[in-house]
Specification:
- The structure is a single chain.
- By secondary structure, the chain is of the alpha/beta class.
- It has a single domain, classed as Metallo-dependent phosphatases (Purple Acid Phosphatase, chain A, domain 2, 4-Layer Sandwich), CATH 3.60.21.10.
- The protein is 31% helix and 20% strand.
- The strands form 2 sheets. Strands 4-3-2-1-10-11 form a 6-stranded mixed sheet.
- Strand 1, helix 1 and strand 2 form a beta-alpha-beta unit.
- The chain is globular and about 50 Å long.
Length: 269
Amino acid sequence: MIDSGTPVKDAAPAAQPATVALFISDLHLQASMPHTAKAFFSFLRDHARGTRQLYLLGDIFEYWAGDDDLDPFNRQVIDALRAVSDGGVEVFWISGNRDFLVGAKFAEAGGIALLPDPFVADIAGQKIVLTHGDALCTDDAGYMAFRTQVRAPQWQQEFLARPLEQRKAIIAGLRQGSREAQRDKADYIMDVNAAAVAALFDASDTSIMIHGHTHRPACHRIESNGAHRLRYVLPDWDCDAQEQRGGWIAVTPDGKIERVGLDVIQTAS
């Protein structure tokens, strides 16, 4: 047995991780979707723990009523994220339109760093602008007005001062209203606006963007004023439906960006 204080000669260098960063969004985690949650926990165990940075780009939860909403399911998610952070992985969070009330107590419990939206990250020598994506849907005037309202610090302070059960009831009503409103909206209104995307590229001085929100996974190649830009859209997750969907984006040490599907996940029994 080697003494812990004795240096080992000719020790092999630590293996370089296959990825330096992983990106996920739009899992909409909730207790009523156990297979999706199980896939997420498997992703954390088998993939996230082997990378350097994990970026959670919004709508990880179906909704977040406040950092005091610590039911057993939410506690399980927080503990799983904390295990990744405690394992040496940097975990970052950008709030989405469903979980924008995530705060400092949640971040501390999960070992997570909260980031502004948008945020420019330097990953494997590349500048990448990260955003949830809802702020790019500027054709949806009604939603943009609502977003401005609920992102205001005073509104959030007043809302979080309400009893938890009252907050949950209000959120349930808002979600139902959102579902009804979406049925009457044209398809393009719920997607990003090209001018808003171009403006974010210009403001961030980047040529790569990663976002979620729209549930329309793709890689869009954009030519603008001689510049070549790439916009990666993350998929949403649903492993409880008959047609399962989900996945993430990975960046390798050499800067290659890869799309990964859920078929690589091995869920524990």
